[in-house]
Amino acid sequence: xxxxxLALGYFSILLSLSGCxxxxxxxxxxxxxxxxxxxxxxxxNNALVNYAANNSSVVAAMVGNADAKADRLMILEKxxxxxxxxxxxxxxxxxxxxxxxxxxxxGILDVTVADTTAEKQVDFRVExxxxxxxxxxxxxxxxxxx
Length: 146
Known about the structure:
By secondary structure, this protein is of the alpha+beta class. The protein contains five helices and five strands.
């Protein structure tokens, strides 16, 4: 009888743990951070990097020294490709949907091009699919120069 009670107790604990949905989703995981930066870095219409590159005095000086329009465009594109991205140390969880296995999050993203840094809040979602794979999506954002 005691063995049956112990077995039932262990089964209850395992059942309650398996009901938690596996790994708890985190906004601040290394994988989430890398994914957010990669998504924005790979965006060809990234307004944040465009702003930083267009307001860099170092880039402006290099562009000003170029003779041909093609050279100026190449310098600007190279500056954008060499931008350094950093997601701030504080990532905030905005919501958690346990049923959908998803969290929504926000953080400050910095992008530095030569001597100019621009920053913007970025909102993103981390989801776990039924097969256990994690995915990250970034909400589109608008960047307006003040």
